[in-house]
C-alpha cells in the first residue's frame, strides 16, 4: 500500500515495527515503531507518558515527510 | 550408519503453545520433535532425525532480532546438528522473517546445510531467497502435506552433498544463481525460435528473466506542513466498533474508509482492531496506539499541520495478497488526491 500511495504522487511515511519488511516492500520514508501489537504506544507507561511517546513518533514521521530523500531512508532517533 | 542429526525451528503457534497472545514468548528448546516436526521426521526416514526443536514467539523474534538470533544459535549449537530446518512458514510474515534470519545465521555460523519453506509473497522470501534454500509452499498450513516432502527432499540432497536441481525441479524459490549447461541447440537458433514464437503470439520461456525491481521513487518532501492536509492509513485493521463492513481478520478482500471528523481521539468505546495477526488487546484498549488520531488532533490545533483528513483508510495486513493490497491502495490513492491530501502517514503492526 505504501508503494501505491507513493506511486500516485503523495509523499508517504511508513511507521512500522519490523523495518526490514518495510525495506523489502519498498517504502522510502520509514520510521521505526515500538512493538507489533502497539506500534505507537506502550501499555507499560501511564497514559500521559504513553501519549508523549506517541507524539515523538508522529513528530519524527512529520519530519520524515518534510525531508527530501533519495531512495530508502530510515529515520532513527 | 547412525542417523544424521537435525534441529528444527518453529514458532509458538505450530508448537501448540498459543496464538498471538503468546507471540512474545522467548526462545526455548525441547528434545525431539514438536508439531510439524513429526511429519518431517517421518519423511526423513532412516537418513536423519530431529533431535531437538527450538521454539520462539514471532513477535519476540522480530522485535529483538539480534538477541533472539544469538539465543537461538546457542541452543542449536548444543545439539551439534548436521542439518537445520525451519518452518515451513507459509504466508505468515513474521514467522517467515524469523525462519529466513535464523537459517541464514546457522548456515553462516555453523556451516551446515539449511532449508526453510514459505509462500512466495512472504516478506521473508524476498529478504532471504538469495542466501538460503527456501522451498516454495502454498499460502496456508493446509498445504503442509505438499510442503514437507519437498523440503525434506531438498534437505536430504544437501545433507548428502548431492547436486541440487533447478528451482523448478527441486521446488525452491529461485536464488538468482546462473548455472552453465550444454544446450542441444546453439544460442542463435534458440534466440530465433523464441523470436518466431513471440511474433506468432505463442508462449515461450525466456532464458534470462529480467529481475523484477518494483521500486517507486520517493516523492518530493512536503514544503509547508502547517498548510498540509494529512491522511492516516493503516494495515493494522483499526475499524469502527463492531467492524461494520466486516473487514476480514486475515487475507482481507476489502478495505474500509471511515469518517473521523467528530473524533478527538479513538477509544475502546468507538473503535477496535479487526486484525487477526497480532494480539488485539492493546489496540482494542486504545486504538490510538495503532492509528494516532489523538496526537494528530493536538498537532492540528497547535497549527503544526494544516488539517487531519476526515477519512482514514484501513485494511488488515495479515496474509493479504500483494495484489489485493496494491489494488486497494491504488483505488483509495485516487480519492486522496481528489480530496487534496498532500501527505500520508501509514502505520503497520
TrEMBL record, chain A:
UniProt entry keywords in alphabetical sequence: Oxidoreductase, Selenocysteine
Q: Does the keyword Oxidoreductase apply?
A: yes
Q: Which GO terms describe its molecular function?
A: oxidoreductase activity, acting on X-H and Y-H to form an X-Y bond, with a disulfide as acceptor
Q: Name the domain of life this protein comes from.
A: Bacteria
Name of the protein: Selenoprotein B, glycine/betaine/sarcosine/D-proline reductase family
Organism from which the protein derives: Natronincola peptidivorans
From TrEMBL, chain B:
Q: Which organism is it from?
A: Natronincola peptidivorans
Record-stated family: Belongs to the GrdB/GrdF/GrdH family.
Question: What's the name of the protein?
Answer: Glycine reductase
Supply one GO CC term from the record. Answer: glycine reductase complex
> Sorted alphabetically, which NCBIfam families does this protein's record hold?
gly_red_sel_B, various_sel_PB
Q: Which Pfam families does this entry report, sorted A to Z? A: GRDB
* GO molecular function terms listed in the Swiss-Prot or TrEMBL record: glycine reductase activity
Key word Transmembrane present? no
Q: Which keywords does this chain's UniProt record carry?
A: Oxidoreductase, Selenocysteine
